[in-house]
Amino acid sequence: MRNAFLRCLVSVMSVGTVCGFLVGCDDGGDGKLSNKNPGINDLNVVVAFGDSITQGSECACVPYPARLSAMIGKIVYNTGVGGSKAESSVGRTQTAINKYHPAYMLILYGVNDIIHGHNVGGILGALNQMVLICKQNNVVPVLATYPVPILGHRLFAYNTQMLNMGIRTIAEAEGIKCVDLEAEFDFDDPLFPEAVDADPLLMQPDGLHPNDAGTQIMAMAFADLF
Q1: Greatest Cα-to-Cα distance within the chain, rounded to the nearest angstrom
Q2: CB 56 within 8 A of CB 215
Q3: Is 209 a residue whose pLDDT tops 70?
């Protein structure tokens, strides 16, 4: 499987202001996820939280949460909602926790906000709220970056990379795990070695949603944490 750890220049988005420093996503390393104080939450329950990429609605394949469940031997509830945006889904965080009492929540959100022209700083603020809600409820949050869009969605590639940088920053600041799907999907093009693009062999023709092979990569990347 591709290396999920990536060192890169990142940005802290605060009211649209950018401050850069070096940080990377934590690929789990030797330290696995643990929840030492789950409270009323079930250590065998995980919630996958996100949009259509989590839901799997755009791929005629088994979504990543179901694959992950089989890999780690835990119940993984798929709460992905196609077309949903991070900034309007903060409230769903508490709803999902109240319903499923997970010990862990996997958060992959924000690309639809990008597509609709939302400011990256606002998206990161929403993600940070999701993380804080998890912590307040004894749920261990995990953030994930997005594969960089290609083909018909390449227009949104740059802002997605900016979002991913901010996601890495939040994970670092909050001391939580981050699954770097941008790095997992990165295509090493010998003609453009500096470019960051998702591997077309892992993406659907729309250039935004992972295909069957890409969905398997996602599940494996998250499984590395357990």
Answers
A1: 53
A2: yes
A3: yes
Domain ranges of the chain: 42-223
- Asked whether the beta carbons of 165 and 10 are under 8 A apart, the reply is yes
Residue matched to tokens 């010990």: 103
22-54 per-position pLDDT tens digit = 345 754 445 799 999 999 999 999 999 999 999
Q: Is 104's pLDDT higher than 60?
A: yes
Calpha distance 126→164 (Å, rounded): 14
Which residues lie below 8 Å from residue 208, measured CB to CB, with a gap of 6+?
53, 58, 111, 149, 152, 153
Tens of pLDDT along 216-225? 999 999 999 9
CATH topology of domain 42-223: Rossmann fold (3.40.50)
pTM comes to 0.86
